C-alpha cells in the first residue's frame, strides 16, 4: 500500500475545489448561525443561486462571466430578502423549516421542465462556464506542486479561491469585532433583550442573512467556474447539513472556525475514504465492496454531526467556559 | 422595615409633593404625566387580560404597578412597550402618540423596559452587555462597522459611561466576565444598568425583585430609588406589597386586567377593594400591614 | 375520451453530491457496461417495442429496444455521463409520458451495469392509471389520490407531532422512520415471509427498536443532559444522515419492491381508478389513525399524553410519569411511521431516501395543522395530500411538491400557529 499516495490524495481534497465551495458556504453560515443565531437550513439555496447565476448568464444568455458574478451577488441578496422578510420574525425552528423548504422549492423550480430553456431542467447547464476565468490563468503549463495533485486549471481555482476565502474571513472578522457584531451576537443570545435596548433586530438579522448568503453564493460561483457544470440535483438539502457539520467542527462563532472545520472535515472524510479504498483494492478488507465506501463516509459524517452536537457543540477547539453557559 | 433615611431624598420629596393633590381614584390625572394610556385592551381567547380605561404615570416619580398573579400587569407592560399588540387603545409618551410603535423605536425615544425573567446575554461579557445599551452608535451600521476609525471615539465614550454605571451597581469588578456567570441578583442589576445605558426617560422594570436573594433586595431597592434621584421616571411591576410600600411614590393596583385603585402606598394598602382582590386569589399572602380589615367574604379576583 | 397512462421513469436516484459514489452497479470492465431497464404499465404489464437511446459526451448514440418482457438494454462503451432518452413515438398509443422531462434524463454510469427502473406509475406516487376525461371526473380521481396520499402523510406525521408536543423536538429524522419501516418489512419479506405477515412484524419491530429504543438510547439521555432543542434538532439531522446512508450501505441505491403485490392490476370503481392494495392500505390507515385518536381521547396514558403536551412541568407535578408518556409516544409514533413507510413501499417502491423525500411534506402537514397539536397532524396531512394532488390540475406533476411547500410557507407567514393551534402568549 502506498501511504504517501493516500496522504497526497487526502490533502489534495482537504484543500481542493469542493472543500473551498463548502468553505464559502460555511463562512457565510458562520455569520448567520454562528454569530446571529439564525437557523438557516437553506444555505444550499445561496450556493445554487451563485452557481446558476453563472450558468444562466454565461450559457443561456451568452454574456460575460464578470457580469455573472455581479448578478450572482444581486440574486443572492434578493434571495436573502425574499427568504428573510417573511420568515425572520418566526420562531427559530419555523425559520429552519421554511428555509429548508424554500431551498427545495427552488431546486424543484430550476430543474422543472417549465423553465428548461433558462435553467436547463434536470440536466442543468453544462459548458465552458469559467472560460474567461481560466483564460487568465498565469501558471506555466507544466506547473506541479509537491504532495498536491491538482491540475493546472484546478490549481488556479484553488489559489484564487483560498485568497478569496481569506478575504471573506477578514471581512467577517472586521464585522464581528465591531459594534455591529456586538448587536448580532446579542440577537443570538436573546432577541427580545436587544429589541428592548433600541436595536432594530429584524434589520440586523436581514443584514446577516444577506452577508452570509452573499459569501455562500461566492462558493456557488466558484463551483460553476471550477466544475464548468451546474446541475440542480447537486443542491440537495444535505449540502446545508454538511456545511453545518463543518462549521460545528471548527467551532461556530469563531472567525477561523469555518477554515479549521473545513480542513478537518475534508481531511477526515477524504482520508477515511482513500484509506478504505486502498485497503479494499489491496485485498486487506474483503467484506466490503468498493462502492460501500461512499456510504460509509456519510454514515461517519452523520454520526460525527450527532456526536459533535452532543459532546462538543462549541467545536473541537472551543472554549469550555462557553459550553457551560450554553443553555440551548 | 428598611432605612427611611433615603426617603428624605430630594426626588422622593418632590414626587410626593407633586402627587399630593392627586385624587385617589383609578385613572386619576397627574400634574405632569410622562405616559398616558387610554382604553388599552387585549384578549387571550375568551379572557380579557388587559382592559385599562385610563392611566397616567407621573414624571420623576417611582410608580408601582401591583396586583395579584394574572392581573395583567406584565401583559400591559408588553403592550405599552410594543412587545405585544393590543386589540384596541392608544397611549402617549411625552405627549406623543406611540401606540403601535415597534419596541426598538420606543426604546430609542426613551422608554426602556426590563424583563421578569432576566435577559442577560449570557455568552457576552458584562461590558459588551452594557455597550449594547448605548444608542446612536455609528459602528452598529454595517458599512461603518468595517471602518473602526469612525466609531472608535464613540466606543471609548460609551465604555467610560458604562464603567461609571457598573461602578454604581457594584459590577465593575465583573466587567470582563461572561454575563452568564453572574448570580441571579447580579443579573438583575446588570439588566437595570444596561437599561440605563439607553439613557431612558422612563424605565419600566418587570418584577425587579423576582428571584433575587432577600439579602440583595435591599440594595436593589436602593438602586431603584437612585434611578429616580438621577431624574429618571420609574414604573415597576411587583406583586409583593411590602417591597412596594418601601420605595414607591405612587401605587396603581390592577386586578383582572383593570385598574381598581390608585394612591400613595399607605392609602392603597388600606383600600378594601385592593385587599379583596389580593385575597380573592392568594389567601393570606403579603398583606401584612397594620389593621387592614381582612373581610372573610372576599370574592372573585381569580383569573 | 383519451386514455392517458402516466409514465414516470423511476430512474435510480443518483446522489448528487460531487464526491459521492452510490448506486448499485456490479464492478465489471467498461466494455460490458450497459443501461438496463424495464418498462411496465401501472398494472405491471410490460411495454414492448419502445426505443431507448443513450448519447455520450462525444455525441455517440447507442440504443436498445424493449422486449416482450419490457426489458431493454443499451450497450455502452465506457463509464461517463449519458443522456438517456425514450423515443416517445415508439410508445404504444394509449400510453404517453407523464411529462416531457421524463423523456430524457442525464445519467452517470460509472462502469458495469446500471439498472434503471422505468415504471409507468403515477409520478412515482400511487401507481394508478389515470383516465383523463371530464374535469369533474379528474377532480374526483385526484381527490381519491389525495386522500390516500394524505393518509400516508398522516401516519408519518402523527408520531412527529406527538414527539414535538411532548418533548419539543423537531425531528428531522422522522422521514427515516418511514424508510426503516419499509426496509425492515423488505428484510422479512426477502427472508421468505409473505408481505402480509412481514408488514405487521416489521411495524412492531420498528415501534420497539426504532421508536422505544431510539428514545431510550438517544433522546432520553439527551433530555437528561439538558441538551437544548436546537442542538437536539441538529442531532436529529445527523441521525437522519447516518440512517439514510446505513440503508445505502446495506441495500444499495436502487429501488426495491416487495415480492408480493408489486405489479397488482388496476381496479376501476365507478369514476375511480386505483389498485386494491392502495384501497386496503387506506382502510387500514384509517383504522390505525382512528385507534390512535381514540386512544388519546379515552385511555389514561392518552390523556396523560395530552396533559404533557399542554404543559410538561404541570403534568409532572400532578404525578404523571412524563418519561413514560414520552416512551409510549415514541413507540406508537415509530409504529405508525413504519406503516407509512410500508404503505409507500407497497404502492410505489422502497428506496434509501424515500423518507427524506417525504420529510418536508410531513413538516408541511404538521405546520398546517399546528405544531404539537394532537389532531393537527391528521388534519394537516389530509389538507396537504388533497391539495398536492389537486394542484396537478394547474401545475405540472413534477412540481406538485412545490405547491405543498409553498402552502406551508404561506401558512407560516399568515398563521404560524397552524390551523388548529393556539396563539402563544408573549413574554
Poorly predicted ranges of chain A: 323-328
The chain-level mean pLDDT of chain B equals 84
The helix/strand class of chain B is: alpha/beta
The coarse silhouette of chain B is: globular
Strand order of the largest sheet of chain B: 6-7-8-3-9-10
* Sheet of most strands of chain B: 6 strands, mixed
* Multimerization state: heterotrimer
Helix percent of chain B reads: 25-40%
Question: What's the tally of helices of chain B?
Answer: 11
CATH architecture label name of the largest domain in chain B: 3-Layer(aba) Sandwich
Query: Which class of chain A in CATH terms?
Result: Mainly Alpha
Distance between the termini of chain A: 46 Å
Discrete helix count of chain A: 15
Give an overview of the whole structure:
The complex is a heterotrimer of chains A (328), B (303) and C (427). Chain A contains 15 helices and two strands. With 328 residues, chain A is mainly α. Chain A has a single domain, classed as ABC transporter involved in vitamin B12 uptake, BtuC (Orthogonal Bundle). In chain B, a hairpin with a 2-residue loop joins strand 9 and strand 10 (258-263). In chain B, helix 4 (126-133) packs parallel to helix 7 and helix 6 (148-168) crosses helix 7. Chain B is built from eleven helices and ten strands. Helices cover 51% and strands 13% of the residues of chain C. In chain C, strand 4 (51-55) and strand 5 form a beta hairpin. In chain C, helix 1 packs antiparallel against helix 10. Chain C is globular and about 70 Å long. In chain C, 54% of the residues are buried. Chains in contact: A-B, A-C, B-C. Chains A and B meet through helix 8, helix 9, helix 10, helix 11 and helix 15 of A and helix 3, helix 4, helix 6 and helix 7 of B.
Amino acid at each position: 500500500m502506498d501511504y504517501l499516495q493516500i496522504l497526497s490524495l487526502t490533502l489534495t481534497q482537504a484543500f481542493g475545489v469542493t472543500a473551498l465551495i463548502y468553505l464559502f458556504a460555511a463562512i457565510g453560515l458562520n455569520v448567520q448561525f454562528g454569530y446571529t443565531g439564525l437557523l438557516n437550513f437553506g444555505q444550499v439555496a445561496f450556493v445554487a443561486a451563485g452557481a446558476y447565476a453563472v450558468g444562466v448568464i454565461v450559457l443561456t444568455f451568452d454574456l460575460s462571466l464578470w457580469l455573472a458574478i455581479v448578478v450572482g451577488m444581486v440574486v443572492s441578496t434578493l434571495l436573502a430578502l425574499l427568504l428573510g422578510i417573511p420568515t425572520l420574525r418566526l420562531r427559530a425552528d419555523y425559520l429552519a423549516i421554511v428555509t429548508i423548504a424554500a431551498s427545495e422549492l427552488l431546486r424543484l423550480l430550476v430543474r422543472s421542465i417549465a423553465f428548461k430553456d433558462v435553467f436547463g431542467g434536470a440536466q442543468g447547464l453544462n459548458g465552458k462556464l469559467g472560460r474567461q476565468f481560466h483564460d487568465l490563468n498565469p501558471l506555466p503549463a507544466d506547473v506541479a506542486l509537491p504532495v498536491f495533485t491538482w491540475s493546472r486549471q484546478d490549481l488556479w481555482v484553488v489559489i484564487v479561491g483560498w485568497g478569496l476565502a481569506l478575504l471573506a474571513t477578514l471581512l467577517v472578522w472586521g464585522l464581528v469585532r465591531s459594534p455591529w457584531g456586538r448587536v448580532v451576537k446579542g440577537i443570538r443570545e436573546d432577541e427580545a433583550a436587544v429589541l428592548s435596548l433600541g436595536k432594530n433586530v429584524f434589520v440586523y438579522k436581514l443584514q446577516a442573512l444577506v452577508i452570509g448568503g452573499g459569501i455562500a453564493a461566492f462558493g456557488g460561483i466558484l463551483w460553476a467556474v471550477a466544475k464548468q457544470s451546474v446541475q440542480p440535483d447537486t443542491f440537495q438539502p444535505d449540502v446545508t447539513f454538511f456545511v453545518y457539520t463543518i462549521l460545528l467542527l471548527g467551532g461556530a462563532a469563531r472567525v477561523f472556525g469555518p477554515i479549521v472545520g473545513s480542513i478537518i472535515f475534508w481531511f477526515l472524510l477524504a482520508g477515511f475514504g482513500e484509506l478504505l479504498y486502498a485497503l479494499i483494492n489491496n485485498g486487506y478488507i474483503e467484506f466490503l465492496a468498493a462502492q460501500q465506501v461512499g456510504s460509509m463516509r456519510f454514515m461517519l459524517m452523520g454520526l460525527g454531526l450527532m456526536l459533535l452536537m452532543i459532546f462538543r457543540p462549541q467545536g473541537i477547539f472551543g472554549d469550555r467556559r462557553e459550553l457551560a453557559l450554553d443553555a440551548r | 422595615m428598611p432605612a427611611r433615611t433615603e426617603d428624605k431624598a430630594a426626588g422622593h420629596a418632590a414626587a410626593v409633593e407633586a402627587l399630593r393633590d392627586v385624587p385617589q381614584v383609578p385613572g386619576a390625572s397627574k400634574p405632569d404625566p410622562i405616559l398616558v394610556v387610554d382604553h388599552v385592551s387585549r384578549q387571550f381567547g375568551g379572557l380579557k387580560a388587559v382592559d385599562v380605561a385610563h392611566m397616567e404615570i407621573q414624571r420623576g416619580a417611582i410608580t408601582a404597578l401591583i396586583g395579584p398573579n394574572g392581573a395583567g400587569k406584565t401583559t400591559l407592560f408588553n403592550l405599552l412597550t410594543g412587545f405585544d399588540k393590543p386589540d384596541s387603545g392608544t397611549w402617549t409618551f411625552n405627549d406623543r402618540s406611540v401606540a403601535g410603535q415597534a419596541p426598538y423605536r420606543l426604546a430609542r425615544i426613551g422608554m426602556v423596559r426590563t424583563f421578569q425573567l432576566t435577559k442577560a446575554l449570557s455568552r457576552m461579557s458584562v461590558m459588551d452587555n452594557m455597550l449594547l445599551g448605548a444608542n446612536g452608535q455609528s459602528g452598529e451600521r454595517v458599512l461603518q462597522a468595517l471602518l473602526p476609525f469612525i466609531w472608535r471615539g464613540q466606543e471609548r465614550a460609551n465604555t467610560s459611561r458604562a464603567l461609571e454605571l457598573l461602578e454604581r451597581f457594584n459590577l465593575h469588578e465583573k466587567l470582563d466576565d461572561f454575563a452568564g456567570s453572574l448570580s441571579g441578583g447580579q443579573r438583575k442589576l446588570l439588566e437595570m444598568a444596561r437599561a440605563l445605558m439607553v439613557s431612558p426617560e422612563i424605565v419600566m422594570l418587570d418584577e425587579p425583585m423576582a428571584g433575587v436573594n432577600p439579602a440583595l433586595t435591599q440594595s436593589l431597592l436602593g438602586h431603584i430609588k437612585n434611578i429616580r434621584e438621577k431624574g429618571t421616571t420609574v414604573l415597576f411591576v411587583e406583586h409583593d406589597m411590602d417591597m412596594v410600600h418601601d420605595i414607591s411614590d405612587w401605587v396603581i393596583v390592577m386586578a383582572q386586567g383593570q385598574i381598581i385603585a390608585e394612591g400613595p402606598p399607605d392609602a392603597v394598602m388600606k383600600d378594601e377593594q385592593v385587599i379583596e382582590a389580593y385575597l380573592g386569589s392568594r389567601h393570606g399572602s403579603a398583606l401584612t400591614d397594620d389593621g387592614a380589615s381582612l373581610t372573610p367574604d372576599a370574592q372573585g379576583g381569580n383569573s | 375520451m383519451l386514455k392517458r397512462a402516466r409514465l414516470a421513469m423511476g430512474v435510480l436516484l443518483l446522489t448528487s453530491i460531487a464526491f459521492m459514489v452510490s448506486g448499485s452497479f456490479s464492478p465489471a470492465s467498461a466494455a460490458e457496461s450497459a443501461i438496463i431497464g424495464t418498462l411496465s404499465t401501472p398494472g405491471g404489464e410490460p411495454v414492448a417495442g419502445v426505443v431507448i437511446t443513450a448519447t455520450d459526451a462525444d455525441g455517440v448514440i447507442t440504443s436498445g429496444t424493449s422486449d416482450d418482457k419490457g426489458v431493454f438494454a443499451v450497450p455502452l462503451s465506457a463509464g461517463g455521463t449519458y443522456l438517456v432518452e425514450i423515443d416517445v413515438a415508439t410508445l404504444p398509443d394509449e400510453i404517453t409520458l407523464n411529462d416531457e422531462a421524463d423523456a430524457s434524463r442525464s445519467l452517470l454510469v460509472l462502469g458495469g451495469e446500471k439498472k434503471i427502473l422505468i415504471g409507468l406509475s403515477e409520478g412515482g406516487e400511487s401507481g394508478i392509471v389515470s383516465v383523463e376525461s371530464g374535469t369533474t371526473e379528474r377532480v374526483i380521481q385526484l381527490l381519491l389520490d389525495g386522500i390516500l396520499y394524505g393518509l400516508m402523510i398522516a401516519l408519518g406525521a402523527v408520531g412527529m407531532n406527538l414527539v414535538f408536543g411532548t418533548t419539543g423536538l423537531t425531528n428531522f429524522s422522522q422521514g427515516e422512520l418511514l424508510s426503516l419501516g419499509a426496509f425492515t418489512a423488505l428484510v422479512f419479506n426477502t427472508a421468505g415471509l409473505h408481505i402480509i405477515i412481514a408488514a405487521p412484524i416489521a411495524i412492531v419491530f420498528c415501534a420497539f427498536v426504532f421508536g422505544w429504543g431510539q428514545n431510550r438510547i438517544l433522546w432520553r439521555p439527551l433530555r437528561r443532559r439538558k441538551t437544548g432543542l436546537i442542538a437536539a434538532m441538529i442531532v436529529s439531522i445527523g441521525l437522519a444522515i447516518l440512517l439514510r446512508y446505513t440503508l445505502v450501505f446495506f441495500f444499495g441505491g436502487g429501488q426495491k419492491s416487495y415480492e408480493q403485490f408489486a405489479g397488482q392490476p388496476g381496479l376501476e370503481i365507478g369514476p375511480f381508478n386505483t389498485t386494491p392494495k392502495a384501497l386496503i392500505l387506506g382502510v387500514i390507515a384509517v383504522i390505525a389513525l382512528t385507534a390512535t385518536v381514540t386512544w388519546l381521547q379515552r385511555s389514561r396514558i392518552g390523556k396523560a399524553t395530552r396533559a404533557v403536551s399542554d404543559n410538561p412541568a404541570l403534568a409532572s407535578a400532578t404525578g404523571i410519569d412524563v418519561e413514560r408518556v414520552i416512551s409510549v409516544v415514541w413507540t406508537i409514533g415509530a409504529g405508525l411511521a413504519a406503516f407509512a413507510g410500508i404503505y409507500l413501499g407497497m404502492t410505489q417502491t422502497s428506496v434509501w431516501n424515500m423518507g427524506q423525500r417525504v420529510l418536508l411534506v410531513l413538516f408541511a402537514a404538521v405546520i398546517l395543522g399546528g405544531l404539537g397539536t394532537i389532531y393537527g397532524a391528521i388534519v394537516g396531512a389530509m389538507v396537504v395530500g388533497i391539495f398536492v394532488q389537486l394542484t396537478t390540475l394547474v401545475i405540472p406533476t413534477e412540481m406538485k411538491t412545490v405547491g405543498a411547500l409553498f402552502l406551508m410557507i404561506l401558512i407560516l407567514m399568515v398563521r404560524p400557529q397552524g390551523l388548529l393551534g393556539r396563539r402563544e402568549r408573549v413574554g
